[in-house]
Amino acid sequence: LLQSDFVLLFCFSNADIFLSLSPLHLQVYMLPQIEKSGVAAEIDAAVQLLLKLKVDYKQMTGQDYKAGCPPSENLIVSNNGPAADDCDGEDLVDPWNVSASSTKGVDYDKLIVRFGSSKIDKELLERIEKVSGQRAHHFLRRGIFFSHRDMHQILDAYEKHKSFYLYTGRGPSSEAMHVGHLIPFIFTKWLQDVFDIPLVVQMTDDEKYLWKDLTLEECHRFTVENAKDIIACGFDVNKTFIFSDLDYMGASPQFYRNVVKVQKHVTFNQVKGIFGFTDSDCIGKISFPAIQAAPSFSSSFPQIFGGKKDVPCLIPCAIDQDPYFRMTRDVAPRIGLLKPALLHSTFFPALQGAQTKMSASDPNSSIFLTDTPKQIKNKINKHAFSGGKDTVEEHRKYGGNTEVDVSFLYLTFFLEDDEKLEKIKEDYTSGALLTGELKKILIETLQPMIAQHQERRKQVTDEMVQQFMTPRPLNYKF
Ligand code: TRP
């Protein structure tokens, strides 16, 4: 035991042995009365446990445990998560935190390597266009959806007339959604249209209750309010099922069965490694990932898929949700189910810069779907981080930097016209276009877009929400 890798602390005031079993820091707190109290067997058990933890550590990280040396970056894929992400000015990306070490934002190429996903390359883009018979969405063309898992398999199957379904979700943490929240839904709507397939949307009101200081009633109310914004994106009611976890978990035996299967096959150690949970996180959080995993399996929706277990699932989501689906893909074969495929997007930057994603709790960090034209104008003029130079003379001389300019970045999301966007880029880089002029273009792009969204949302009645949220068969041909 007295090898250098365990820290022994002798504690005189208490008669217990405390084991604190964080895999990264193994500590044993022991007492002096060991001999007389006959605890040799307990110590032996503790030593065995510690040795087993070393083996687990090696399995999880692929490295030998060494005291005081946190694991380096090359963790094996299924377990690399936030626990390893916060070293040395690295970007931090997990479902609850996103922060980049550079003003250009997160280094997405590095993230692909670290997460073990694949880049959406030219070949895949061409295949998507060929199979769907449509020009790729500008989110794909511009690298906003930049990474994937198993998309080729989805296309292979589709080419053989085997269909698939879409799954995405939203954590309803407040009534107000911002434009960034629409990105996955705008893209999912496009996928639904071009492939003509069913979609399930999970509203994780349970997740928000567990993570935030909100009541169950508030979270459920946000689900309904957010569902209206989602419906306003134009989803087809005959092909779309939106569900609240708080309602659907209790209403669907098959869904709950899949949750339990996942729960049985993932250990606390694994979720610690993937999500960075600690011993003081409530058990609701620890078991929640199984609930986000379950909609990846078609058997969770017997009303839609008639009990079929083998309808492939494609999940469009922001890359911060990937830890959930790494876990899902890891357990799927062990419970006899298909691994879901994924399409990952970059983050929508905060007005203040690409170093972080927008936060619903800071009204000035984002443009909300409820903002008036005037608020949109003021926020952009006041808060949008500029890649321009300090004075007009300098700007004319040296030009602006579109890589960090938030107004330009927003236009890459919302200005569909490729030629216009290219021209703006040229002019801004050369100095011909000033920051104020660039901001004006963005304001004039967003004002009508948000106004149209508000108009469509107004048309969404409570009965329509009810319809979308009722478990029922969907219309699709397989
Ligand atoms: N956890 C996500 C959030 O907080 C919501 C979510 C649930 C989700 N299932 C999903 C997002 C599937 C994308 C894909 O927003």
UniProtKB/TrEMBL annotation:
Residues 13-71 form the WHEP-TRS domain. Keywords: Aminoacyl-tRNA synthetase, ATP-binding, Ligase, Nucleotide-binding, Phosphoprotein, Protein biosynthesis. One of its GO terms (molecular function) is tryptophan-tRNA ligase activity. One of its GO terms (biological process) is tryptophanyl-tRNA aminoacylation. SUPFAM superfamilies: Nucleotidylyl transferase (SSF52374), S15/NS1 RNA-binding domain (SSF47060). GO terms for cellular component: cytoplasm. It holds the Pfam family tRNA-synt_1b. It is an enzyme of class 6 (ligase). PROSITE patterns: AA_TRNA_LIGASE_I, WHEP_TRS_2. Belongs to the class-I aminoacyl-tRNA synthetase family. PANTHER family: TRYPTOPHAN--TRNA LIGASE, CYTOPLASMIC, TRYPTOPHANYL-TRNA SYNTHETASE. This is Tryptophan--tRNA ligase, cytoplasmic. It comes from Astatotilapia calliptera.
